[in-house]
User: Fold this.
Amino acid sequence: MTIAEERIERLASLARDAAAECHDQRARNYVRLARRLAERNRVALPRQFKRFTCDACDRYLRPGKNARVRTRDGHVVVTCDCGEQSRYPYK
Assistant:
């Protein structure tokens, strides 16, 4: 694991903890830092991190608090408060 991947993992956990404590702006900054780090080092973001962040507003999504999660035929739809939707399949 490279240094960039380790730092992205650390930023993801910090964003999760900050969102749990209702520090939304701090969590948003951690998400932005992790994305910039991944882009600069050409490293993929972890799947869990990609699924629980909004692409439009960089918010860390917490189902029931600032995101709505619905299951449809063969896929899950996660809707952020800003209106952005992301979909991913399930079996």
In short: Strands lie at 67-72, 75-80, 85-89. The chain has a mean pLDDT of 95. The chain has one domain: 3-89.
